[in-house]
Amino acid sequence: MEPVLIVLVVLVVVAFIALIKTIQVIPQASAAIVERFGRYTRTLNAGLNIVVPFIDRVRNRIDLREQVVPFPPQPVITQDNLVVNIDTVIYYQVTDPRAATYEVASYIQAIEQLTVTTLRNIIGSMDLESTLTSREVINAGLRGVLDEATGKWGIRVNRVELKAIEPPTSIQDSMEKQMRADRDKRAAILTAEGQRQAQILKAEGEKQADVLRAEGEAQAAVLRADGEAAAIRTVFEAIHDGDADQKLLAYQYLQTLPELAKGDSNKLWIIPSEVGDALKGLGGAFGGLTGGMNGGAVAAPTVPQVAPAAPAAPAATQVPLDPASGPRPVDTEKGAARPRVDPAREYPKIDPE
């Protein structure tokens, strides 16, 4: 009985192992390669699959999702003989599990080596400045070459990215100095442009202010002239309407004389020669008026007395003024004040009557 029991146990174990090998569960977005006696038979897709135990063998399980593979920095020589280290990242996806298994031994290693060689070819035809500023061009070139080469491997390269481009330390220092100099230059240019614009705006503002000020002064002068003209016209019309005679003019002379004497700077008072004639006419007018009213008993009002004139009448009489006490003679002789007489001039004769 014991040998029979042992045989039964062995058969159960073999059947369990065969069942396990018969049923193959493939996860989603995965595939499996099945070989029968070492030859490719079929590709198992996601789900429950049945294979022949001990005859069919699952060789490889492949992930069909997009993969990201970073490659270590690779030294690359540029066209201007500078060595730069470039880090790359490859985004790829397996589209044909059979080709990825049988067309290339290790597609990841193959992609890495192909990326390095292609990168050296592209960077070798560019200088350092173009390398640093042409990442899109480098990415497009790498992707085109990798797509063409990996298509027969059942691999599709979706994207190629350059993580970093590191030039030598000395070049980095020179680039930093150059960049700092460029920034200082741009700052100086912007400062100069700002000052220039500010000066231009200031000059334009001053110009506009001067123009407006001149226009205002011109308009004010015009208005003042119009006002003075209107005032003169009004005075002239009033005098014309009032039919002014010599008496009114003599009275205006008397009203103006105190205004001429005002001010501390008035040291000399010049009386026109026409004042005497005007005063004579005014005195005659007042004499006639008072004589008519009082029967000739009242004398004419007092008029300013002027010293007797010399035989020759001058054009004008000069009377010095004292700011403190008003008009008075300046030249004195033996305590008696007398007007200064210029013998070279002729003074008018004024009749006090």
Structural summary, described in words:
The protein is an alpha+beta fold and 353 residues long. The protein contains eight helices and 13 strands. The protein has helices at 2-22, 97-102, 107-124, 128-133, 135-150, 169-242, 246-261, 274-294, and strands spanning 23-26, 30-36, 39-44, 47-50, 56-63, 67-77, 83-94, 155-166, 268-272, 316-322, 326-327, 332-333, 336-337. The strands form five sheets. Strands 3-2-5 form a three-stranded antiparallel beta sheet. A three-stranded antiparallel beta sheet has the order 6-7-8. α3 (107-124) crosses α5 (135-150) and α7 crosses α8 (274-294). Mean pLDDT is 76; it is low at 288-342 and 347-353.
Keywords:
single chain, 353 residues, alpha+beta, 3-stranded antiparallel sheet, 8 helices, 23% strand, rod-shaped, disordered C terminus
Radius of gyration: 63 Å
Helix-and-strand structural type:
alpha+beta
Low-confidence stretches: 288-342, 347-353
Determine the strand fraction and express it as a percent band. 15-25%
Number of helices: 8
Summarize the model shown:
The chain is α+β, with helices and mostly antiparallel strands and 353 residues long. 50% of the residues lie in helices and 23% in strands.
Q: What's the layout of helices and strands?
A:
Layout: H1 2-22, E1 23-26, E2 30-36, E3 39-44, E4 47-50, E5 56-63, E6 67-77, E7 83-94, H2 97-102, H3 107-124, H4 128-133, H5 135-150, E8 155-166, H6 169-242, H7 246-261, E9 268-272, H8 274-294, E10 316-322, E11 326-327, E12 332-333, E13 336-337
Antiparallel strand pairs: 1-4, 2-3, 2-5, 6-7, 7-8, 9-10, 10-11, 12-13
